[in-house]
Every structure is written in structure tokens, then in C-alpha cells.
Amino acid sequence: MIAAAFTVAACLVSGWFLARALTAGAFLGPRWSSLLVELSLGALFGPGLASILCLALLRAGAATPTGVITTVVTMLAACSAIWRKFTQAAPQPPAASKKFPWNWALWVCATAALGLFLLDFQAAAGANPYGEWDAMAIWNLRARFLSSGGDLWLRAVSSESVGGMAGVAHPGYPLFLPLFSRSHGSPQACFPPPFLSARACSSLWRRWAFWARASRHAERRFSESWLG
Amino acid sequence: VLAVFAALNSFQVSQGYSAQYPDTYGGARAEVRFAPLAARTPSGAQLGYITDLDPSQPAYAAAFLAAQYALAPRLLVTLTSATGSRPEWAAGNFTKPQDYAAAGSSLGYEAAADLGNGVVLFHRK
């Protein structure tokens, strides 16, 4: 449990370092707004990068607990180094300009629009708990294969899945979304931008939980096979 | 202000659509229909797919996909009368009551269990 929590935390921090490096000097507003962007991007970058590396470990037969943790720690160190290198050269933001007097009205409109968006999203997700077509046909179906034991995960990238209907299965699509989308008993709808809604945050958390569970499962299987 | 009204309109459209077409892609229905078949087959199995739908119709892909989603990680394999892969077990997905044994027989399968709701478990002859 502690190892899984550390791995997830290291992935998030790595993503945050990477997001900070890539967006250095791009946002001139208050720090909280750029921090929100960095955290949102970081939640995508870190796990995305980790999932690619873990898939490579899986293929190389090195997805042991030690291998995974070593890889994630190396990734964290590399992202930290990238952040340090890029942010040193980043330009300092200029002093804040004069405030727009009607900002309060914009806030009211933005809050109302956000509330309506949440209601809209809830209505769509409630009617289709297994997601829209792409979520079900591509991402969540492949996630079910990926979260299976043994070599069954290969079915996620097989041209034979979905009856060989490549136009429906899209076997060449990246594995990032399905790796995070599967959580038994609470399938998710299409992916909204992170941090836009409470449902999105909750589904993101469930994806983390799934990822941690899938990682532990894969690690255990590999350990068992290695240890005989 | 325009954006807020557009969001309100979008919400109304979504709400109406959701009420009119719940479970649009049949995923929830398929989970219920195929649950007995999933319980009778190993999770890593390959299953032949037998249906009364014409593969050239759009409904075929949607029905196949919903079945595949409900049965994953089992892999559904399309069967043809020509020689090809013929798994030991096959899943029947029918839109209306009919002679299931005859549907499987032409592909070399015999009906092992009628699981209701148009779902039939077949076994290779």
C-alpha cells in the first residue's frame, strides 16, 4: 500500500515538474491560476509517462516491484532536472496590470456556466453509465483487456479484437486513456478536462485506484512467475 | 451572457436526449443479458459469435460491441461457414426468438443453454 501510494505520488510530482518546465513563463496571471494549470497538466503528464515506461517494463519482463519503483524514481529525478534546467532560463513575469472593473460579472457568468456544464455532464453520464460510443468501444473496452491477468492484455492491441472491425476497435490508438479508465463497477463516460468538475476529479481518483490495483496485480504476477 | 445561455440550451438538449434515449449504446443492457453466459465461461476464453443480424447493417457492429464489452476479457470471434477459427464455446446474440439450434448448426455448433433475453451458449459439435 505504501509503495503504491509512493509510486502514484511520485508520478504526480514528476508530472507537475514537467508541466512547470513546459509552461514556465507562459502564464502571467496570479500564481494560483498557473498552479491550477500546472496541476491539471501534471496529472496527465506524470501518469502518462509512467504508463508508457511501465508498458515497456512489462514487455521487457522487468515489471517487478523493484523495477517499477526504480523506474518511477528515475523518472522523478529526470523531470526534476528538466524543471530546474528550463525554469532558470524562463523570463520573469511583468508586474500585474490594472484590474478590469467588471471582473465580478465575468466571475458570475463563469460560475453559472460551470454549474450548467456540471448539470449537462451529469445528465449525459447518468443516461450512459458506460460512456459514449468512443469511451465504450475504444477506451473502456481496451481497459478491460488491459486490467486482465496474464497475456490477456495483448487483446487490447490486437487487430482481432472487436471481431476484426479495425474501424471500430482502433487498435493503434494510444494506451494512456484505457490504462486509467477502467474501474470495476463504476465505468466512466468520456474524458472531460481534469479539474473541471467534481465528477471528473472523482473519476480521476478512481482511475488512480485502478492503475494502482492493476500495477500491483501485474507486479504480483510477474513476481510469482519469476520466483516460480 | 451568450455563453451562459448556450450552456443552458446545451443542458436542456442533453437532459431531453438522455430521458428519451437512456443507455443509447446498449452497454448496461448487455451487462445484464450476458451475465449468465460470462458466469459459465472462463475469463480468458475465446468465444465464437453467432447472431441473426446482418454484418452489413449498422446495428451489427453496435450489438457485437456491446456483447464484447460485457464479456471482456473474453474475446469474441466472428464465425463464418468457411474454414477458420472455431472456438470450443460460442455466444449467441439474437434480436428475436427463433430456432437457435439451427442458427448454430450451420456453423458447426449445438445449443448448450438458452440463457434468456436472446442470449444462447453454444458448444462446438
Can you offer a commentary on this structure?
The complex is a heterodimer of chains A (228) and B (125). By secondary structure, chain A is mainly α. Chain A is 68% helix and 0% strand. Chain A has eight helices and no strands. Chain A has helices at 2-22, 31-60, 65-88, 103-127, 133-146, 166-169, 176-181, 198-227. In chain A, α1 packs across α2 (31-60) and α1 (2-22) packs parallel to α3. The longest helix of chain B is centred in the first third of the chain and has 19 residues, at 2-20. In chain B, α2 (27-40) crosses α3 (58-71). Chain B has helices spanning 2-20, 27-40, 58-71, 100-105; strands at 46-51, 75-78, 89-93, 109-114, 119-124. A five-stranded mixed sheet of chain B has the order 2-1-3-5-4. Helices cover 42% and strands 22% of the residues of chain B. Chains A and B meet through α4 and α5 of A and α1, α2, α3 and β2 of B.
Unreliable runs of chain B, pLDDT <50, ≥5 residues?
none
User: Major sheet of chain A, described briefly?
Assistant: none
Following the backbone from N to C, one meets helices and strands of chain A in this order, namely HHHHHHHH
Low-confidence stretches of chain A: 182-205, 221-228
Structural class of chain B: alpha/beta
Structural class of chain A: mainly alpha
Q: Span from first to last CA of chain B? A: 67 Å
Strand order of the largest sheet of chain B: 2-1-3-5-4
Strand content of chain A: under 5%
- By DSSP, the count of extended strands of chain A is 0
Distance between the termini of chain A: 24 Å
Q: Fraction of residues of chain B in helices?
A: 40-55%
Number of strands of chain B: 5
Largest interface: A-B, 36 and 35 residues
Overall, the morphology of chain B is: elongated
